[in-house]
Specification:
The chain is α+β, with helices and mostly antiparallel strands and 144 residues long. The chain is built from three helices and nine strands.
Length: 144
């Protein structure tokens, strides 16, 4: 006959096993880096699922509302998005920098570029509108 600790261990063994479910995104919260989603197996809606395994700086992929994601669980109460099928935007930040801000600063510097010649300073950058269009595209990609 099994003792009570063996019974409890057997009963709770599956609770801490990692597993994943496929779900459809219903809402994205870019402020808190979480999503709400509905599992495709018709189980209960998952709320405030983290977009990062650990919160803080790093890479965040914001999925499109209505797209599919794989939600992985460390335990029944601890979940995060492991994969996304469609990316709406991206955030990449280190301790001191964000990729968007770095690229934005680069575009600003290139668009205001001046070259000094023997004849004096050069005229404005000819393709400034195209360079600023790139900045707009970067803003769309890295919107938060």
């Amino acid at each position: 006959m099994a003792n009570i600790s063996d019974i409890i261990r057997a009963y709770t063994a599956d609770e801490h096993q990692p597993y994943s479910v496929l779900a459809k995104v219903t809402a994205v919260d870019k402020t808190n880096n979480t999503i709400d989603c509905e599992p495709l197996d018709d189980s209960a809606e998952l709320l405030e699922v983290r977009l990062q395994a650990q919160t803080g700086k790093g890479l965040v992929l914001y999925p499109v509302v209505g797209s599919d994601v794989v939600v992985s669980f460390f335990s029944k109460d601890d979940a995060f998005v492991a994969m996304v099928s469609q990316v709406e935007s991206v955030a990449l930040e280190s301790q001191n920098e964000s990729l968007f801000q770095l690229l934005s600063d680069l575009v600003d510097e290139v668009s205001s570029l001046r070259v000094t010649t023997n004849q004096g300073p050069s005229i404005e950058v000819i393709n400034k509108p195209a360079i600023l269009a790139i900045k707009s595209r970067l803003k769309n990609l890295f919107s938060k």
